[in-house]
Amino acid sequence: MFHRMNKIPLYVIGSLLFGIKTYIVYRFLFNIELDNIMQEIILFINPFVSAFLVFAISVWLKEERQMKFIRYASLIGSFILYFNLIFYRNFTDFLTIPVLFQGSNAADLGSSVLALINIPDILLFLDVAIIWYVSKKYGNSLTVSYKKRKKVLAFSLSIAFLLGNYILAEIERPQLLQRTFDREYLVKNIGIFNYHIYDIVQQSKSKAQRVFADGNELTEIASYMNNNTTDNSQTDLAGIAEDKNVIFVSLESLQSFVINNTLHGEEITPFLNDLIGDSYYFENFYHQTEQGKTSDSEFLVETGLYPLPSGAVFFTHGQNEYNSTAELLKNNGYSTSVFHANNKSFWNRDVMYNNLGIDQFYDVDAYEVTDENSVGWGLKDKPFFEQSIKYLQALPEPYYSRFITLTNHYPFDLAEEDATIDKFDSNSKTLNQYFQTVRYMDEAIKDFFDQLKAAGEYEDSIIVLMGDHYGISDFHDRAMAQYLEKDEITAYDHIQLQRVPFMIHIPGEDGKVISKIAGQIDVKPTLMHLLGVDDSNDLSFGTNLFGDNRKEYIALRDGSFISDDYIYTKDQCFNRETGELITSETDDIKGEAENAIPNKCEPIEQQVQQELTYSDQIIYGDLFRFYDFNNKNIDSDENNSNENKKK
Ligand code: GP9
Ligand code: MN
Predict the structure, then answer these.
(1) Annotated catalytic residue within 229, 294, 303, 437
(2) CA of 525 to the centre of ligand 2 (A)
(3) What pLDDT score does 433 carry?
(4) What is the pLDDT of residue 643?
(5) Options 3.90.1150.10, 3.40.640.10, 3.40.720.10, 3.30.980.10; which CATH number does 231-550 get?
(6) What is the rounded distance in angstroms from the CA atom of residue 358 to the CA atom of residue 52?
(7) In which band, very low, low, confident or very high, does the pLDDT at 182 lie, cut at 50, 70 and 90?
């Protein structure tokens, strides 16, 4: 059949096949939201543009090389696409360069990875097989030997296509590349391959930023913090937990929607629900993590800075200078430790913990892990707490100890004998199982409280519990809507689902439910307030949750925000109470037109962008190396005391 096609060169055939495949993946395997016909068109065009851009390079090669180039380009391209797909199935997100260099994490994914690979995936390599077969069989009849003029023409054509794609994307989404948009927007508009190139450029830029940063940048940022995020006012809770131990429990993937909620008529988290009764419970508390997941939540708690828009800051900037919660407490006589039954290198924790001033890391090697007592990611939460108690008892007091749970982690596997609530029944296995692992975690925490009491560790401690990030991604929206008895999960609902539980239990104190807007960024100053630790020299974007002078919003890492009145996400501004859409960017007629709806979200939106940019600037520039946290002194000279302290 191919003799009739021998006028169509392989680079064109390759571009078409690869383009079609990529389009199928975008359209049917990724869950990319398409709002209008223009987006449909762009999504259809960009796979072919990217494929042609690469395959057309082959015309510059000698004929015998062309085949080889096209074969390998299609193979490598397919792997890039496939790795993204596997990653996407877990995180509903696309790979970025820093994540790629976290190979040790990939190796540790274990059971999760297997759950993400499907046999029919092999079909995604069909075009590669065809290209290899055809190129072997029909050999040089499919190569081209162009004169210079035609080569230039092929090249110009590929660039013209690219430009055309870019112009359409700009019309659809002005300033696509300048604004910090989410990765889905980039992939949808310029394609996954161009997105990767963009990402590489961005990452190199951030490396360069450290080199060129100087301490003067910090002056403006510090004054922003002093004016907007610092609240040194005292409340009657100030110092209430002075010199008490801090037991901080990170609740893996726990979202607030399960709290005080039921499944099959049963409470999902009976223990936590009871505990709320005698704790300070923040019901509008949001996680602010990005790709670094658990480690991002740890970063927020330790630094009061935002994690990065892409990659895990634990990896990319694990060597920076910080003024961590652990260090602050150490200076006040605390011993500091983290308990987590996973490899110490996961999320680069071993390196980062050292840098953050954590004295002791009880990683997987501190635990007895067997087939019987583990599931999914490793040691189950119940034996984890049980085995931790002896270490906790031996710690010098007061201690600041964080416990990171693990069982309630995707894909939410649990042994039958550990399940004490029936699965949910929907099209999402993930959500169905989630309730069971959540219940298991609830029981594990109940047991932990009993063990703390029995070991005499409870009375002198405060116990803080915090959900680290979402567990159910928007990939499972249909099932989630079914559970929540809604028609659909809107952009507004999506933001509200980013609430995670946060409670502070002070033995002997009553507690109460607090509705004000709060986020992980606030944990550090809040703890300092309760512990009576002076943090007035600290630089952070968080504010004591018990104070009254709080800024009016919580920024999520993608630029969405929640304020007292509004919820803003994806260019849409909602009424926070009612969920009603007030205005979307397209409705927002910027002129003086009579019916123009003013974008109520815009002023805060700008401040959020500013704040996130400041935070990134601190991290990319490693600006705290210029700051002396003892004397509140900015020194533009690198040789300041912090830098010396490290050596
Ligand atoms: C890994 C654990 C889970 O050690 O913290 O990580 P996550 O995937 O949630 O970031
Ligand atoms: Mn986690």
Answers:
(1) 294
(2) 22
(3) 98
(4) 44
(5) 3.40.720.10
(6) 51
(7) low
